[in-house]
Design goal:
Elements lengths: L2 H16 L13 E2 L6 H11 L5 E5 L8 E5 L6 E5 L5 E5 L14 E3 L2 E3 L6 E3 L4 E3 L19 E7 L2 E5 L7 H5 L1 H5 L9 E10 L3 H6 L7 H4 L14 E4 L5 E5 L7 H8 L12 H5 L1 E6 L3 E4 L8 E7 L2 E10 L12 E3 L7 E3 L1 H7 L2 H8 L6 E2 L6 H14 L24 H17 L1
The protein binds FE2/S2 (inorganic) cluster (FES) and fe (ii) ion.
FE2/S2 (inorganic) cluster binds next to loops.
Length: 436
């Protein structure tokens, strides 16, 4: 990010801190229908139209580091195997044998130059080609092995991070990410290693869990000791991007004691990503990568929280920490701590416990007659924009009217458009006039 962009964003954060109402021209966010969190019909649309069409975080190259390495992955439902091919290319396939559907690999991780189904030993190359069928002569003479390879799933990488997409027609990952592709360049995705990856089951709809990480309105109330010293919610600047992505950017409160920030934010022994610029070093910035990844990005970590719907009312939360190689130090793990009740076990860190504490109760409330609709403030606009994107991904006309959100946040409030720039200049002009 260049110096003028940094200066512009700093000025906008200060402007957010001074404003006394939502910015002029910002649309009124209409109540969102409550049933978006409880309707089986809406959930089915999300699964089919959003999770089958979006780029999804699948893993890190450290999990399949060498040619021949493979890993199972089933966070999106279907059984998938991610394979580091003998030719160096990382691919994803349904872990489904083309003979009678047995799983081709049955361990979570492994390494082999061929993938062999254990049922009748059909054998595939690491590029998915079927190359071995025992008793081949007993199949019809025109049995064409070349069209019975493993069924591929789109698989692309952002540096070391592996994404998959079930939609053969989907745009490439780079295009999907849009401006984030370049904005994230300073976080060294091609050098960060996988330090920790854990998952926990939550008793609430995936959006309930995720939205706790998509606004800073809650920070002073549920994170008074943990996040509040690092983030000034008043000076938070939200930016919406195309395809449903978004960013929050906020400086620490003016009252924060620098030593306190350093103690939380600059842990000894962890290597800094030198290429990270001023905002990543001095502010908290967190990105939503639509649909289910939220990650603060800083000069120490790329630590995504990834939210997987496992049913209408349950979620698997993945807590991932990626960082530069930590050498002989213990691997950093931003989101989990040792669980004293089980040897080697991990539990969610205090911040994550704070964020997830209400999930189950919220879900229960949402299923009661008392939960009518969701009013959102300007500060919570990232949540509204996320819901607009869900509906757009599903196809607005295919969302039953009683479940739909109105598409009120338009392109004029989406990157690269920034109406707040004009409001800021207007303010500067007015104060110049007043001084004259
Ligand atoms: S099901 Fe895989 S070889 Fe028969
Ligand atoms: Fe939070």
């Amino acid at each position: 990010m260049d110096a003028s962009e940094i200066a512009r964003l700093k000025a906008l954060m200060e402007w957010e801190g001074r404003r006394t109402a939502p910015p002029r021209g910002f649309p009124t966010l209409l109540d969102m229908p409550a049933a978006r969190y409880t309707s089986p019909e809406y959930y089915a649309l999300e699964k089919e139209r959003v999770f089958r069409r979006s780029w999804l975080f699948a893993g890190h190259i450290d999990e399949v580091p060498e040619p021949g390495c493979w890993m199972r992955w089933h966070n999106a439902g279907d059984p998938i195997v991610i394979v580091h091919g003998m030719d160096g290319v990382v691919r994803a396939f349904y872990n489904t044998c083309r003979h009678r559907g047995a799983p081709v690999v049955t361990e979570d991780f492994g390494k082999s130059s061929r993938l062999m189904c254990g049922y009748h030993n059909w054998t595939y190359k690491t590029d998915g080609t079927l190359v071995g069928v025992p008793e081949r002569q007993d199949f019809p003479p025109d049995f064409d092995m070349s069209c019975r390879g493993l069924i591929p799933v789109r698989c692309e990488r952002l540096g070391n991070v592996i994404f998959v997409n079930f939609d053969d027609e989907a745009m490439p990952l780079k295009e999907w990410m849009g401006p984030l592709w370049d904005e994230w360049a300073e976080f060294a995705f091609d050098r960060i290693r996988l330090a920790a990856r854990h998952s926990f089951d939550l008793q609430c709809n995936w959006k309930v869990a995720m939205e706790a990480n998509m606004e800073v309105y809650h920070v002073p109330f549920i994170h008074p000791e943990t996040v509040a010293p690092l983030v000034d919610p008043k000076r938070n600047l939200n930016t919406m991007y195309p395809n449903g992505h978004a960013r929050m950017l906020a400086p620490p409160p003016r009252t924060t004691d620098r030593e306190h920030v350093r103690a939380i934010d600059s842990p000894p022994g962890w290597k800094q990503i030198e290429s990270v610029g001023e905002l990543g070093r001095t502010c908290t910035q967190s990105y939503t990568l639509f649909p289910n990844w939220v990650s603060p990005l800083s000069n120490y970590f790329v630590p995504p929280l990834v939210f997987w719907p496992t049913s209408l009312t349950t979620t698997r939360l993945e807590l991932v920490t990626m960082a530069l190689d930590w050498g002989d130090e213990p691997a950093p793990d931003l989101w989990t701590v040792p669980d004293d009740t089980q040897p080697g076990g991990r539990q969610m860190s205090p911040i994550i416990l704070e964020d997830t504490q209400f999930g189950e109760a919220i879900q229960k409330s949402m299923e009661s007659a008392a939960f009518k609709s969701v009013p959102l403030s300007y500060q919570e606009a990232r949540i509204y924009s996320f819901h607009q994107s869900l509906d757009r991904m599903i196809g607005v006309d295919d969302v039953p009217e009683e479940l739909r959100v109105e598409q009120v946040i338009g392109e004029e409030w989406t990157w690269p458009n920034e109406p707040r720039d004009a409001l800021l200049s207007e303010e500067a002009e007015a104060s110049r006039d007043a001084a004259e």
